[in-house]
């Protein structure tokens, strides 16, 4: 099915690219396309402006946050394709396959994660919140976000609720997409990989339109996974997947309209911890539309925006293998017992008003308000046997012959959130930069929350910067955590309250002509934490309770060894973390080296995750070790001429045998990751 759908999409996209390339009226040469990373000096890279920490432009060095920035030219040089790969090169962040789906690899910041959807981290794309209204996370509804359309990405570690409200608890990933691009790329590679992406920018009736379309598919790697259910002790499976991403921005003067759409599909492999070839299917979709109107005066600007997000997830998995229902079904059937969820549409709309006032050269004020409404309809279960009769042991149970609506798995619900924020930034004697702010959010049904922040940034010399950061942040329980019902694995808890984190952090940045070194220590104290607990043999439910703090340190190096050689490295050490974070590594490190020689660019990278643990014998209180691993990447590219670039990239260069901790406590082995993945690509600029 995936291959049939993608084959038709590839034909349409190929035709569209051909038409665009033939249209000389729209074609234009990009300015400095695919410019070398090394064309920017280290000082320029360190003084790049970021917007996520304050909602206005601020240099990396003075930003009142722990933040790491990757630019388009830096990302384009690396042998990476998706966000879940890149996060492993940012201090404090990690991403691991967890067996929830062939395409799930949730990311975490500073080794703290409760839900599989990474709902403790807020994902922003061009300023718009991207998350599943049902689970309040992004990593499961938009898995494997493409890197090809990123102009700049900011990995903010620590709280951001003083500006953004719920979910900006452990971090914010702020993505700014590309504009003014005219190019097409084609990739082929391992696992029958095929990919096309297409950028086009043009002026139509004084409207600037930027379009990006990305389509990828592959047939998956092959695995032999230990299984007691097979005669030879293993089961063969594969993990085919596909994705489609669309981003369109239209702007005229100070008015902008933005459309985003993401679709991801996968088959076979693990789904919710179970393998079933030909049965397991997963499809997630998210669409987002936003209207933005900006008003500018000499020393201030205001923005009014309205956005709408809708998402859906379709899942079908095997509950019992073929033949299990033969003697207890009517009519008698050997068909496997399959269950899943319908692709119900969950929606959210948001109205925002934001303001930035430059009072004078030393003082700035940001303030604003927002209103969000979440509509979460009943989550409908589908099965091919009568699941109610089966649970009640009312045999024989009816065999439907196809997926048929069953009982609801989640109650319908709505939520309204009203938020206001205020932030003041001031500079004292050109050396001390103070940020003081707070946000208040009022939730229907679950109370309210005040999130303050204080940041002191001191620059005694051009080479040294010291930061002290204090903030409180929170995460409101998701609709799923509150309202799941009649579920043998997870039950909702309607009495949940928001969980809160209080963070203190000290950072030192040393910068000279050839290198920059950033070091920091941090502490996260949790109160009212939302924690999964076992309430039955295999059933989990969330409760508010005390939780151990996270304490650790981070070190990041940027080195321009020669005009042609750039090095980036970091390491993270967590010495205290909650007991429930046993699946997350406490030691992390990464390295990236880029070398430019005439028309050639070579990049090698690697990241290392220390040992983790997984549940043993179906019991979260019993643990077994999951080995540490190192994964290497590489990319070599050559500019053939001013329009054509060719490259070869590899992920998991040494074909390392990597397993990561599963989300499910019922599995007896780690989740296998893909082997070496090589891709040959061509990029044509027009």
From TrEMBL:
InterPro entries linked to this entry: Beta-barrel_TonB (IPR000531), Beta-barrel_TonB_sf (IPR036942), Plug_dom (IPR012910), Plug_dom_sf (IPR037066), TonB-dep_rcpt-like (IPR039426)
Q: Which GO terms describe its biological process?
A: siderophore transmembrane transport
> What keywords would UniProt list here?
Cell outer membrane, Membrane, Receptor, Signal, TonB box, Transmembrane, Transmembrane beta strand, Transport
Identify this protein by name. Answer: TonB-dependent receptor
The terms describing its cellular component in GO are: cell outer membrane
The UniProt GO MF terms for this protein read: siderophore uptake transmembrane transporter activity
Domain TonB-dependent receptor-like beta-barrel residues, every copy: 278-653
Q: Where in the cell is it found?
A: Cell outer membrane
Signal peptide from the UniProt entry? 1-22
Q: Which residues form the TonB-dependent receptor plug domain?
A: 63-172
- By its UniProt entry, which SUPFAM superfamilies does this protein fall under? Porins (SSF56935)
Mode of membrane association? Multi-pass membrane protein
């Amino acid at each position: 099915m995936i291959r049939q759908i993608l084959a038709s999409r590839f034909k349409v996209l190929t035709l569209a690219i051909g038409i665009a390339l033939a249209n000389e009226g729209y074609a234009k040469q990009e300015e400095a396309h695919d410019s070398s990373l090394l064309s920017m000096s280290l000082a320029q890279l360190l003084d790049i402006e970021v917007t996520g920490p304050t909602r206005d432009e601020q240099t990396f060095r003075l930003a009142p946050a722990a933040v790491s920035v990757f630019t388009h030219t830096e990302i384009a040089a690396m042998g990476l394709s998706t966000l879940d790969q890149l996060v492993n090169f940012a201090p404090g962040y990690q991403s691991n396959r967890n067996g929830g789906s062939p395409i799930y690899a949730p990311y975490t910041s500073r080794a703290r994660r409760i839900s599989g959807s990474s709902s403790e981290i807020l994902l922003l794309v061009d300023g718009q919140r991207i998350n599943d209204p049902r689970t309040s996370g992004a990593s499961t509804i938009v898995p494997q976000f493409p890197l090809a359309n990123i102009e700049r990405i900011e990995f903010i570690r620590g709280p951001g609720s003083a500006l953004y409200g719920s979910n900006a608890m452990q971090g914010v990933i702020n993505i700014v997409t590309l504009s003014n691009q005219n190019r097409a790329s084609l990739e082929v590679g391992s696992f029958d990989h095929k990919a096309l992406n297409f950028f086009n920018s043009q002026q139509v009736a004084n409207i600037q339109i930027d379009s990006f379309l990305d389509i990828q598919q592959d047939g998956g790697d092959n695995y032999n996974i230990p299984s007691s259910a097979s005669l030879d002790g293993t089961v063969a499976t594969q993990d085919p997947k596909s994705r489609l991403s669309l981003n369109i921005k239209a702007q005229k003067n100070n008015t902008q309209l933005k459309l985003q759409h993401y679709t991801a599909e996968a088959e076979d492999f693990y789904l919710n911890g179970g393998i079933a070839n030909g049965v397991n299917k997963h499809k997630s979709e998210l669409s987002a539309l936003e209207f933005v109107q900006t008003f500018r005066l000499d020393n201030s600007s205001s923005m009014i925006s309205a956005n709408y997000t809708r998402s859906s997830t379709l899942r079908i998995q095997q509950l019992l293998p073929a033949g299990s229902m033969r003697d207890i079904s009517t009519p008698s059937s050997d068909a496997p017992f399959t269950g899943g969820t319908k692709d119900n549409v969950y929606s959210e709309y948001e109205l925002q008003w934001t303001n930035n006032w430059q009072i004078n050269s030393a003082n700035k004020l940001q303030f604003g308000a927002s209103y969000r409404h979440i509509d979460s309809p009943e989550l409908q279960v589908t099965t091919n046997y009568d699941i109610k009769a089966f649970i009640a042991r009312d045999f024989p149970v009816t065999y439907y012959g196809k997926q048929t609506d069953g009982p609801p798995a989640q109650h319908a619900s709505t939520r309204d959130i009203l938020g206001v924020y205020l932030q003041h930034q001031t500079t004292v004697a050109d050396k001390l930069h103070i940020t003081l702010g707070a946000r208040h959010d009022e939730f229907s049904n679950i109370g309210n929350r005040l999130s303050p922040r204080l940041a002191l940034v001191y620059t005694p010399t051009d080479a040294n910067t010291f930061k002290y950061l204090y903030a409180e942040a929170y995460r409101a329980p998701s609709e799923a955590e509150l309202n799941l019902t009649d579920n043998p694995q997870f039950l909702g808890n309607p009495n949940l309250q928001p969980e809160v984190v209080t963070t203190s952090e000290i950072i030192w940045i040393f910068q000279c002509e050839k290198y920059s070194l950033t070091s920091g220590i941090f502490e996260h104290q949790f109160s009212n934490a939302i924690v999964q607990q076992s309430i039955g043999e295999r059933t989990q439910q969330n409760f508010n309770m005390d939780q151990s703090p996270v304490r650790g340190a981070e070190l990041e190096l940027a080195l321009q060894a020669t005009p042609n050689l750039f090095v980036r490295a970091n390491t993270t050490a967590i010495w205290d973390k909650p007991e429930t974070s046993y699946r997350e590594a406490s030691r992390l490190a990464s390295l990236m080296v880029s070398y430019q020689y005439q028309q050639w660019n070579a990049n090698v990278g690697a990241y290392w995750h220390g040992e983790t643990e997984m549940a043993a014998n179906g019991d979260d209180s019993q643990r077994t070790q999951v080995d540490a691993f190192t994964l290497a990447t590489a990319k070599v590219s050559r500019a053939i001429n001013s329009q054509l670039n060719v490259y070869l990239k590899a992920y998991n260069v040494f074909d390392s045998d990597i397993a990561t901790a599963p989300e499910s406590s019922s599995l007896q082995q780690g989740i296998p990751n893909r082997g070496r993945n090589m891709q040959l690509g061509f990029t044509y600029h027009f």
